[in-house]
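Why should sequence recovery work at all? Because a backbone constrains its sequence more than one might expect. Tight turns favour small or flexible residues, buried strands favour hydrophobic ones, and helices have their own preferences. The token representation captures these environments compactly. In the example below, the structure is given first.
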């Protein structure tokens, strides 16, 4: 089986010489964005509120006892089903 030099270069990107021959590499220049320089005022604002969410955070989705009972029942069945399936697969 003959492996091409491009395949070897892909597997070993740091390789410079192959079979005594210098490998020609194509190098692309990477444009890097300059670092942002923030003023002290902007830094102070960012430190006061380090992150924000795109929408307001709400307390939860269990508004009523009926919804809470349904969700808790569903989660309980899901966890027990998952646990029984994983224990069956470990016995094989």
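From this structural description, the recovered sequence reads:
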């Amino acid at each position: 089986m003959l492996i091409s030099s491009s395949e070897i270069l892909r597997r070993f990107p740091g390789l410079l010489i192959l079979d005594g021959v210098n490998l020609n590499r194509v190098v692309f220049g990477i444009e890097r964005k300059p670092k942002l320089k923030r003023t002290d005022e902007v830094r102070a604002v960012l430190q006061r509120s380090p992150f924000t969410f795109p929408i307001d955070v709400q307390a939860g989705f269990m508004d009523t006892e009926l919804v809470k009972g349904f969700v808790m029942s569903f989660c309980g069945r899901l966890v027990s089903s998952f646990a029984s399936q994983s224990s069956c697969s470990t016995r094989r």
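A few observations help interpret the result. Helices lie at 5-11, 40-48, 65-90.
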